[in-house]
Design a protein that fits this description.
- The chain has helices at 2-5, 21-29, 49-61, 84-101, 117-125, 147-160, 173-182, 219-228, 246-251, 272-281, 307-318, 346-360, 370-374, 392-402, 425-436, 443-447; strands at residues 74-77, 136-141, 164-170, 187-191, 200-207, 211-212, 240-242, 264-268, 288-292, 323-327, 334-337, 365-369, 384-388, 406-408, 415-417, 421-423.
- By secondary structure, the chain is an alpha/beta fold.
- Strands 1, 2, 3, 4, 5, 6 and 7 form a seven-stranded mixed β-sheet that branches.
Length: 448
C-alpha cells in the first residue's frame, strides 16, 4: 500500500521496510540517528526553518562513517560504530568462511560378512543419519569494559551457525593464538581494541594453526560475506565449553628461560595476564624483574616522545638496570631500552636476534620488513634475508614458505619458529635474554 501511494520511496538505512512521508518528517524533526546517513535527509517538507537550519548544521559537522575493517581485523568506537549486533553479524560471516574450508565428512560403506548379509541388508539400505560437527572456534576477550558485551554476541552467532565454541574468557591475543594451535581448532576470534583508544573495541581472527587473518589473507572475504549477507550453514546449533590454558601456556616457556646470567630487567605492560606469566617464570631465575606501571591507553611504543616511552626512560635512568622492555596491549608488539634508558631502534634488535639464531640454527633463512632491511646493508655472508610485508599474516605465511627461523622489522613484531610461526612478546624477551647471556657486556655494547 505504501509503495503504491507514496510519491517518494522512504526507507531508513539498514531497514528493509518502507515508511510514510509523515514518519520520515517526524524522524527528521526528532534528529533520528539514521537520518544522518539517509539520502533523503534534504527532503524536509513543511518542517520549520529553525529545525531545517539545525539539521543542516548537524550534517556539516557530521564526520564520514569509518570503515570498520582495518588491515588486521575490525575496529570501531563501542556503541557509536560497533555494538553487539554488528559484532555478531561479522562473527557469523567468519563462521561461514570456516564452514567453507571444513572438509566434508561421511560414512564409508562397510561390506558385511556373508553369514550376516541377510540380517544387516536392511540397515545398509537405510543407514542412520550422521550428526554433523561444525568447526571449532576459540574465543576470548581483553580487559576493556565493553568486551564482555561484544563477546556475548560473538558466541551466540557462532553457536547459531553450528560452531563448537571454546571460551577462554579473559585472555590476550598471544594466549589465544597458543590455545588455537594447542586445541587444533579451525579458527579463533579475539574481542579486543588493542592499539586504539579506550573507547574502541573490535575483532581479530585466526584460522587453523593460528594463521592470522589480515588484508590480503581472507579478511576481504569476511568483509564481503558480511556485506552481501549469509545464511545458516547448519540447522543443528553448536555447543560451548570453557578452557583454561594458562598452566600449559606458561609451561611452554620453561625451555627458553634457563641458563641466564643475573640481569636486572624493567618491564612496562598494562596486561595483567602477561605480568602474572612473567612473575611466575622469573620466580626461579637469577634475574630481578621490576614492573613499571602504565595505563590502558593508545601508545606508539616506537616513538621516543610517547608518554609511556618517556616514563620508561625515566625509570631506567633513576635506577640501575641492564635493559628495559615495553609491551603493547596486544601482547605481541614490543620495544627495548638499553641500560641508559635509550629507546633502541628495531633494526638493531632484529640484527641482534638474528646473530643469536644463526648460531642455534643451521638454516640462515630470515625475513625482514623492507624498511628494516634497507638499514642493514652489511649482513654476514651465508645469510638469506628476504623482504616481507608488514602485516601479521604476511609474516606468518612467508615464514612457512621460506622455512625461515625469524621474521621482524620496524613494526615491533618478532616472529620465531616454534610448532607454528609464533609472535609473542614473552618469547621475544626470552630470546633477547638468552642472547644477552652469552657475554657479560652491557646491552648497548653488545648491540654496537
Amino acid at each position: 500500500m505504501l509503495l503504491q501511494t507514496a510519491e517518494v520511496f522512504f526507507q531508513c538505512p539498514g531497514e528493509d521496510y518502507p515508511i510514510s512521508k509523515a514518519i520520515h518528517l517526524s524522524r527528521l524533526a526528532a534528529f533520528y540517528p539514521k537520518c544522518r546517513t539517509c539520502p533523503h535527509n534534504t527532503e524536509t517538507g513543511n518542517l520549520s526553518p529553525e529545525t531545517v537550519k539545525r539539521l543542516q548544521q548537524t550534517q556539516k559537522q557530521r564526520v564520514a562513517p569509518q570503515n570498520l575493517f582495518t588491515a588486521e581485523g575490525v575496529r570501531g568506537v563501542y556503541l557509536n560504530e560497533i555494538n553487539r549486533t554488528q559484532a555478531a553479524h561479522i562473527a557469523g560471516a567468519f563462521s561461514n568462511v570456516l564452514w567453507e574450508e571444513l572438509p566434508l565428512k561421511g560414512l564409508a560403506p562397510q561390506l558385511p560378512a556373508a553369514s550376516s548379509l541377510k540380517t544387516v541388508s536392511r540397515s545398509l539400505v537405510h543407514p542412520g543419519p550422521e550428526k554433523s560437527r561444525g568447526p571449532s572456534v576459540v574465543i576470548g576477550f581483553d580487559e576493556r569494559p565493553s568486551s564482555p558485551d561484544i563477546i556475548t554476541g560473538v558466541a551466540n552467532a557462532l553457536r547459531r551457525n553450528g560452531c563448537r565454541v571454546i571460551d577462554l574468557g579473559l585472555t590476550v591475543p598471544a594466549i589465544l593464538s597458543y590455545a588455537t594451535t594447542h586445541l587444533q581448532a579451525q579458527g579463533a576470534i579475539m574481542v579486543t581494541g588493542s592499539q586504539c583508544g579506550p573507547s574502541y573495541t573490535g575483532l581479530e581472527f585466526l584460522l587453523e594453526n593460528s594463521q592470522p587473518v589480515s588484508v590480503g589473507h581472507s579478511l576481504e572475504k569476511i568483509q564481503e560475506i558480511s556485506t552481501t549477507g549469509f545464511g545458516r550453514a547448519s540447522r543443528q546449533p553448536g555447543s560451548q565449553r570453557t578452557f583454561h590454558p594458562m598452566e600449559s601456556y606458561r609451561a611452554q616457556f620453561h625451555k627458553h628461560f634457563h641458563a641466564l646470567r643475573p640481569l636486572k630487567i624493567a618491564v612496562a605492560c598494562s596486561l595483567r595476564l602477561v605480568r602474572d606469566t612473567l612473575n611466575a617464570l622469573f620466580e626461579k631465575l637469577p634475574c630481578q624483574l621490576t614492573w613499571v606501571q602504565i595505563p590502558h591507553q593508545k601508545r606508539d611504543l616506537l616513538n621516543s616522545q610517547d608518554s609511556d616511552v618517556l616514563k620508561m626512560q625515566e625509570s631506567l635512568q633513576s635506577r640501575e638496570y641492564d635493559l628495559g622492555m615495553l609491551i603493547d596491549d596486544d601482547s605481541r608488539r614490543c620495544a627495548f631500552f638499553d641500560e641508559a634508558g635509550t629507546l633502541l631502534p628495531q633494526h638493531l634488535i632484529s640484527q641482534f636476534l638474528m646473530n643469536a639464531l644463526a648460531v642455534e640454527y643451521a638454516s640462515k633463512e630470515f625475513l625482514l620488513e623492507e624498511e628494516c632491511l634497507a638499514q642493514l646493508p652489511d649482513l654476514p655472508p651465508g645469510w638469506n634475508v628476504h623482504p616481507h610485508t608488514g602485516t601479521l599474516a604476511g609474516g606468518y605465511f612467508q615464514m612457512q614458505t621460506k622455512q625461515a627461523v625469524y621474521a621482524g622489522g620496524q613494526s615491533g613484531y618478532h616472529w620465531f619458529r616454534e610448532t607454528v610461526p609464533t609472535c609473542d612478546a614473552i618469547l621475544t624477551l626470552a630470546h633477547v635474554l638468552a642472547a644477552l647471556s652469552f657475554s657479560d657486556a652491557p646491552f648497548s655494547e653488545v648491540l654496537s
